[in-house]
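Module 6 notes. Inverse folding takes a fixed backbone as the condition and produces residue identities as the prediction. Think of it as a translation problem where the source language is geometry and the target language is the twenty amino acids. Below is one complete input and output pair. Work through it position by position during the lab.
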């Protein structure tokens, strides 16, 4: 991953979220499967949004023509979203290229006491297309997607009825994605 790409992506996130990024690295766990250039960025709450935001920087290998990056929201500062983004990046790089609409088993609750142990990769409808799409100097496109923690039953519903049906259900029920103990919508 080039310094230029890292700088462009960090600037893109900071412009959209109007906050400065802090780098978070894992000293144990799945990090040894990733290049040292991979990072997770942490954005504290700000005037625009009262949430902690964690985002990948270098999720896709540099040679990918269509790069993907993910972000996840959290109700408080935590290492758990950092760990999940590292694990998800390893999963993505080992052959299961994630795209909007994909769902996968996180393998554990996304935060302590949560019923959500699955991830749904979605377009960032809270932030819109200006966050979602980033053109880079090397002419490769970058898509910034939202990792939504979901329950297994929500994942099953998505498989049966589609992502649009699930996101409509989220909207109808006014789901608080920041509540680690939120009940399933299905």
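Target side of the pair, the amino acids:
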């Amino acid at each position: 991953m080039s310094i230029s790409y890292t700088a462009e992506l960090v600037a893109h996130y900071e412009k959209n979220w109007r906050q400065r990024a802090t780098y978070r690295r894992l000293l144990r766990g799945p990090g040894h499967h990733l290049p040292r250039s991979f990072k997770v960025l942490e954005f504290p709450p700000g005037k625009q949004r009262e949430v902690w935001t964690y985002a990948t920087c270098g999720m896709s290998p540099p040679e990918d023509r269509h790069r993907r990056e993910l972000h996840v929201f959290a109700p408080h500062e935590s290492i758990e979203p950092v760990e999940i983004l590292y694990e998800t990046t390893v999963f993505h790089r080992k052959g299961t290229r994630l795209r909007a609409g994909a769902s996968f088993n996180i393998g554990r609750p996304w935060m302590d006491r949560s019923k959500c142990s699955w991830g749904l990769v979605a377009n960032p409808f809270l932030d819109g297309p200006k966050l979602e799409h980033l053109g880079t100097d090397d002419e490769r496109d970058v898509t910034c997607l939202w990792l939504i923690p979901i329950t297994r039953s929500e994942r099953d519903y998505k498989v049966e009825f589609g992502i649009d049906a699930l996101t409509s259900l989220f909207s109808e029920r006014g789901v608080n994605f920041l509540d680690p103990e939120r009940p399933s919508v299905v």
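Reference fact for the lab report: The two ends are 41 Å apart (CA to CA).
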